[in-house]
What we know:
alpha/beta, Rossmann fold, Arc Repressor Mutant, subunit A, five-stranded antiparallel beta sheet, 42% helix, 22% strand, elongated
Amino acid sequence: MSQELIHIIEDENEIALLIRDYLEDDGFQVMISTDGQSGLEKTIEKKPDLVILDLMLPKIDGFEVCRNLRKDLDIPVIILSSKSSDMDKVLALGIGADDYVTKPFSPVVLLARVKAHLRRASKQLKAVNEDVLNFGELKIYTESYSVTIDDVEIAMTNKEFELLKYLAQNAGRVVSKDQIINAVWGNNYFGDDNTVPVHMYKIREKIEKIPSKPKYIQTVWGIGYKFIGGASHE
């Protein structure tokens, strides 16, 4: 069961309760505020994991709530509003909202968006707390087993990731096939001699713009492989 806390700031009671029921049925904790002032104060005090925010609120409107939240908190904010003009959407996203859903809405779709933003926020938090090998557009997140190019995640198997991480951690050094086998598969491995070249081919297909002219992983014929570029650690 999920333990994330969602704060609904919505003055239409029927809508707030409908969203609450869907969220609680999925295991979320929920709190509700019915005006902008109390919604802002409770969010700063309780620090929920995500806020669902109406724009047309008593006391202070949702734009002002979002603007003030962004001064203190870095949590996902989903705007839920009957305002459907492009100008309202641009303004809301411009002051820090993460998403914009117009009324009438599907509770199922809203729930899916809540989950998606929480997953993204969780990944970002993990990335902040882990060692990142940074090669410019290519980043290798050593603990979460993820790789991104231009902030787009690249799907990799565990062995592909471990092989790439090993090469990157030894950037600038030539490592032999036997060294790679020992580091990634273990020194008791008795598999196919083509294991390393096959994995290398798959990795290049995923991270190189032109795999036949690799930017990151060079083959040193008769010896092994070398990862090009120095990493900065974040």
